Amino acid sequence: MKTKNKISKAKAWTRGVLPLCLTACLTLFTSCADFFEQDSNMVVFADKDHLNDATDSIYSVIGILNKLQAVADRTVLLGEARADLVDVTAAANADLRDVAMSNIGDDNKYNRPRDYYAVINNCNYFIKNVEDSLKNNRNEYIFLREVAAVKAVRAWTYLQLALNYGSVPFYTEPLLTKEESEREYPRVDLKYICDYFIKDLLPYTEQPLPGYGTIKSLDSRFFFFPINVLLGELYLWRGNDRNDYKNAAICYYNYIVNRNGTNSTYPTGTRFIQWNTAYSNWRNIFVDLQYEWISNSESWSSGELITMIPGDSIKSEGNYSELRGIFNTTVDNDYKASLTPSKSMTDLSAAQTYCHLYANGSNVDTLYAPSTLTDYQAGDLRLWGMWRMNDNSVNSTTGDRYTSQTVFKYSTRNVHLYRRTMLWLHMAEAMNAAGYPRFAYAILSKGLNNRVIEEDIIPYYRADSTFLRQFDFPASRYVLYNTPSVLSTANTQGIHSRGSGFSQYNKDYRLPDDAAIEDSLARIAYQQKGVEKMIIDEGALEFVFEGQRWYELMRFALRNNDPAILADRVYARRGAENSGAMRGEIAVDLTNPANWYMSWKGKIGMK
C-alpha cells in the first residue's frame, strides 16, 4: 500500500463524517486516507494518484462539503438582509448593518469571494482527477454519481458568485500553486454561468445522489444539490426566451416525479397554520407547519427539505452557524437579536385576506377573518407561526425583563437551502413566465393535479395541450385539500393556503383578469403581470428569513427590465411612507442594477 501523509488538521465535522461514509464503501475498496488541512484554500488532495479508488473519492467529496460550510451563513444573510422583509436592530454588528444598507466594503466579513473559490477549486480538482471510468467487479461505473454531485456543487457555487458579484473570474482547471491563484482569469456574467452549467449538467440528470447513509443523525442525501433542481434554477435565471421557462418547469417536474423513484409522488403536502375549522370565534389556531421549518430528521420520501449545508455543533469547531444568534435572542447575544421582520413584511402579512371554512353542522360556511385581529394574527398566519416576540421575558439569572425574539426557522445548526415548497413556487414562476398564468395560479390557490390541468388550464391553451399534459399528476395520487373533511386523505394544497386558509374559495384571491381585453395574447399578458405580483408576495410570505428575497427581486427585475421591482420594495422596507428616508440611508442607488453587486480587491485565491 502506498504510504501517504497524515492529516495535519481537519474540521471536527469532517472527522465525524468520514468513518461513517467509508463504512458504506468498504465493500468496494479499502485504502489509507489523507488530505491537506481543511483550512487550505487550495485543494484537499494535490497528488494525482489520490482519486482513483472509492475511499479517496469519498474523502474528497466530504472535503468539498466541508468547504461549503464557510459560505452557508452569508448565503442567507446576503439574500435576506439587503432586501425588504427584515430590518437590522441596534444589536447588529457593523458588517451586517452595512450589508443591510448595501454598503459592503472589501473588508466586510460577508464579502469573501475566496471562500467560494475554495469550493470551486476543490471541485475542479476532483472532476479533473477522479477515475470515473473505474468499474467494480460487476463492470459498473462507480464514480458517476460523485462526479454529478461535485459538478452540481460547482455550478451552485458559481451561481452564487454571479448573483452577488455580477461578473466573476471563471476557471475550470484546478489551481495548485499560489502563483496560479494570483493570475488574472477571464470574467464572465450570469448568462455565461447559466449557459455553461446547463450544458455541463444535462448529461447527469439520471444520476442519483450519492448515498452515504446517516451522518450525525442526518440523511446524507440532504447534503447534495439534485441535478434537475439546479437545472431548473439555471434555466429560470437565464430566461432567454419562453423555452427556457418551459425547460425550467420541466426540470422541476422531473425532480418531483422522480425524487422517490420513477413515477413517484412528491406533492405539496397539507401542512399549514390555520384557524381551527371547528370554531368561528378566531381564538383557536391549528399549527402544523413549524415542524417543516425546524426538522433535521425528516424522512427523505415525504419531507419538505431538499438540500442543506450541515453546520458544526459547537463554536470551537470552526464553521458554527451564527444564524440562530442573529435571528433569536439567546444568552450568547445578551438577549438581543440582530435581524427582525420589517414593517414591509408585517404590513404584507396583515394585508392578506384569510378565508375560513367553518363546519357548521352539515353545512360548511365561508368566513373571513377580521382585519382587526392583534398579535400579528390578522391576514396570513405564517408570520405569526414562525416568529414570536415577548416583551415580558425574564432573564433567569438576573431577573431582568427583556424583549425576546424567536424565529422557529433557526432552531437548528444546519442551513437549509432548497425545500419542496420553493420547488413548486419556482415551477409556478416558470410557467407564468412561459405564458401559462392559469397553471401558476392553480399552484398558488387550490393545488395541482390532472383534473385541474384538464378542466382549469388546458381549455385556455388548446394549442399547447401536448406540452401541458407532460405534467402528469394523477388525481388519485395528488389529492386536493378542498374541504376540512378530506384532510386525512389529501396531500395537495395551494401554497397560499399554507397561511391564508382555503385560498381556492377566497373572493380576494382570484386570477387577475380583464374580460374587456379582446386580444388573447394581451389578455394573457395582463394575467401574467397580476400572477407575477402574487408570486412575488407569496415568496415573501413563505420564505421570509430564508435568504431568498434579494435574489427573487433581482430575478423579477431583470426579467422585466425594471429595476424598480427591486428598488421600490427595498426602499419601502420600513413602510411606504418612509421610502424617502430609507433611500437616503441605503448607500447606493438601487434603481441602477450595477449597484446590486458587491466588488472585491485581490485575486481569487486570497483577499
In short:
The protein has 607 residues and is mainly alpha-helical. It has helices spanning 12-23, 54-80, 94-100, 113-129, 144-165, 178-181, 190-201, 227-238, 242-258, 290-294, 323-327, 343-351, 382-386, 420-433, 437-445, 450-457, 465-468, 497-500, 520-543, 549-560, 564-571, 579-585; strands at 86-88, 168-169, 187-188, 214-215, 218-219, 273-275, 285-287, 305-309, 339-341, 355-360, 363-368, 387-394, 401-407, 415-419.
Outline the fold blueprint:
Blueprint (H helix, E strand, L loop, with lengths): L11 H12 L30 H27 L5 E3 L5 H7 L12 H17 L14 H22 L2 E2 L8 H4 L5 E2 L1 H12 L12 E2 L2 E2 L7 H12 L3 H17 L14 E3 L9 E3 L2 H5 L10 E5 L13 H5 L11 E3 L1 H9 L3 E6 L2 E6 L13 H5 E8 L6 E7 L7 E5 H14 L3 H9 L4 H8 L7 H4 L28 H4 L19 H24 L5 H12 L3 H8 L7 H7 L22
Antiparallel strand pairs: 1-9, 2-3, 4-5, 6-7, 8-14, 10-11, 12-13
Helix pairs in contact: 1-2, 2-4, 2-5, 4-5, 5-7, 7-8, 8-9, 8-14, 9-14, 14-15, 14-19, 15-19, 19-20
Topology, number of strands = 14
Q: Tell me, what's the shape?
A: globular
**Major sheet:** 2 strands, antiparallel
Overall mean pLDDT score? 88
Low-confidence stretches: 1-40
Strand order of the largest sheet: 1-9
Structural class: mainly alpha
Strand fraction band? 5-15%
Helix content: 40-55%
Distance between the termini: 39 Å
Q: Total helix count? A: 22
Radius of gyration: 25 Å
Molecular structure report:
- The protein has 607 residues and is mostly helical.
- The protein has helices at residues 12-23, 54-80, 94-100, 113-129, 144-165, 178-181, 190-201, 227-238, 242-258, 290-294, 323-327, 343-351, 382-386, 420-433, 437-445, 450-457, 465-468, 497-500, 520-543, 549-560, 564-571, 579-585, and strands at 86-88, 168-169, 187-188, 214-215, 218-219, 273-275, 285-287, 305-309, 339-341, 355-360, 363-368, 387-394, 401-407, 415-419.
- Strand 12 (387-394) and strand 13 (401-407) form a beta hairpin.
- Helix 2 runs antiparallel to helix 4 (113-129).
- 47% of the residues are buried.
